[in-house]
Amino acid sequence: MASRVDSIFSKPLAEVADFKFDTAVVSVFPDMIQRSVPGYGAMISAIGLLAERFIQPESICYDLGCSLGAATLSMRHQMTESACEIIAVDNSPAMVAQCQQLVEEDDGLIPVQVIEADVREVVIERASVIVLNFTLQFLPLSDRLSLLTNAYQGLLPGGILILSEKLQFSDDRQNELHTDMHHIFKKANGYSDLEISQKRLALDNILLPETLVAHQERLRRIGFESSEVWFQYFNFASILALK
Ligand code: GEK
């Protein structure tokens, strides 16, 4: 799919509404996420490699908050285990429709089901790999424990959770530094100050980052044996949690 260039926030808006994963966002999403999330492409590639390492026979890989299925397709093309499938879930109808089309156009052999649903309502079972690539951060804080508990319970022994999130830091100077560096990253990728500040406002109420310690403590309380950061670029990190 030829992704259009993201210019959604390029004109001054009288009022900046909360960000929505709608048709306009879907049409520019690959460009938007590449230019906004430091290390996104590297993480997507590595998710495929991790899935290949941890896939178990006759198990399921879940991509929760799949957007256009980048992690799904990366896993599909790396895994050689045949008797398994991938379930990709998103609650944005526009994302799901486009993801479904991309999966159909893709030549991978592993079956992929694309489901329009809220990740909080998905039954997770026989999972060897669960991916939450920048999705948990959009859920209310009070819903995160139950989603991750559900994920833990649906994982097979030896299964993994890949949890990528924008991070907050407990030290104010670190917070400021990483926020600045993220903006410098976006500017280097062609976004203007206006685009950066309007997008930031649009995400203010809906993207709620937590600290690494908060993530790791919750994962430990749920039962994950260990969780470590395997990738970080400024305030964007990915955690690998082992059951
Ligand atoms: C990628 N993982 O390219 N239920 C289902 N989906 C949800 C929910 C929910 N409750 N809340 C948000 N989403 C992708 C990128 S984007 C991250 C993930 C970003 C979905 C939402 O519709 C969107 O598609 C996705 O989570 C977040 O690897 O844009 O920063």
Helix content: 40-55%
Percent of residues in beta strands?
Answer: 15-25%
Which structural class fits the helix and strand makeup? alpha/beta
- CATH topology of the domain at 40-168 and 207-242: the name is Rossmann fold
The H/E string reads HHEHEHEEHEHHEHEE
Bound molecules: ligand GEK
How many beta strands in the DSSP annotation? 8
Explain what this protein looks like in three dimensions.
The protein has 243 residues and is α/β, with parallel strands linked by helices. The chain has a domain at 40-168 and 207-242: 3-Layer(aba) Sandwich (Rossmann fold), CATH 3.40.50.150. The chain has eight helices and eight strands. Strands 1, 2, 3, 4, 5, 6, 7 and 8 form an eight-stranded mixed beta sheet that branches. Helix 2 packs across helix 3 (70-78). The longest helix is centred in the C-terminal third of the chain and has 17 residues, at 172-188. The termini are far apart. The protein binds ligand GEK. Ligand GEK is lined by residues 21, 33, 65-67, 70-71, 89-92, 95, 118-120, 133-135, 138-139.
